[in-house]
Amino acid sequence: MRIVLVGPPGAGKGTQAAYLAENLSIPHISTGDLFRANISQGTELGRKAKSYMDAGDLVPDEVTIGMAKDRMERPDAERGFLLDGFPRNVSQAEALDAMLKSEGMTLDAVLDLEVPEDEVVKRIAGRRICRNDSSHVFHVSYSPPREEGVCDVCGGELYQRDDDSEETVRKRLEVYHAQTEPIIDYYRGQGLVATISALGQVAEVTRRAMDALKKPE
Asked: 205: closest CA among 113, 100, 76, 128?
């Protein structure tokens, strides 16, 4: 299957993408992973992306599209793939359609993870990270530390990243609504969208997604 996963920040796309890709035996292609891999390997696309990022500019669509195309052409993606973070806007969606059409392929489904905006803010703004080890992550509501502000694992100070502040989260949501959300209507016009609730336990959301893939809306 060839699937696109869409949803606002905090919807749990990365977690669901990993589970779905494993269940479907297809590669999980994440834009973030593509950028990191291309930059660390010093590819031409990676160097281009880094030059824009170092200047504080957005990476142009054609660079992102080039990375995605290169990844989708690898042997492990012949049987399908799950795209996470791409396409990010309608022009990228159109480029993806053209890319697939040139290979005689089409998308099978677009999974839209739906989460209320207040829940997104609560999920992200409630995160607390250990200063000693960023892999130690807590949440003020869902997984609070035994002692407020102190890491259960090593006793380090817990803090809120700037990216996780409510103001930053709401700005990220504005960008999502303006740039990425329109691709849902774009794909809905092709009859590809299955909208599922991303509330509840991870396994329950995965089950809803798998059910939706069997019978897309």
From this structure: 113
Q: Give the separation between CA 208 and CA 139, rounded to whole angstroms.
A: 25
Distance (Å, rounded) from C-alpha 45 to C-alpha 49? 6
Q: How many CB atoms lie within 10 A of CB 41?
A: 10
Assigned token pair, 190: 């092709």
| Cis previous bond, 87, omega within 30 | yes
104 φ/ψ sector (left φ>0, alpha ψ -120 to 50, else beta): left
Say how far apart CA 22 and CA 84 lie, in whole Å.
14
Quote the DSSP letter at residue 60.
P
CB 12 within 8 A of CB 114: no
Q: How many CB atoms lie within 10 A of CB 29?
A: 23
User: How would DSSP label each residue in 117-153?
Assistant: HHHHHHHHHTEEEESS-TT-EEETTTB--SBTTB-TT
Condensed to tens digits (0 to 9), the pLDDT of residues 75-126 reads 999 999 999 999 999 999 999 999 999 989 999 999 999 999 999 999 999 9
DSSP 8-state class, residue 195: E
Q: Residues with catalytic annotation?
A: 13, 88, 127, 161, 172
Q: Classify 20 as helix, strand or coil.
A: helix
Tokens of 116: 């209320």
Output the pTM of the full model. 0.87
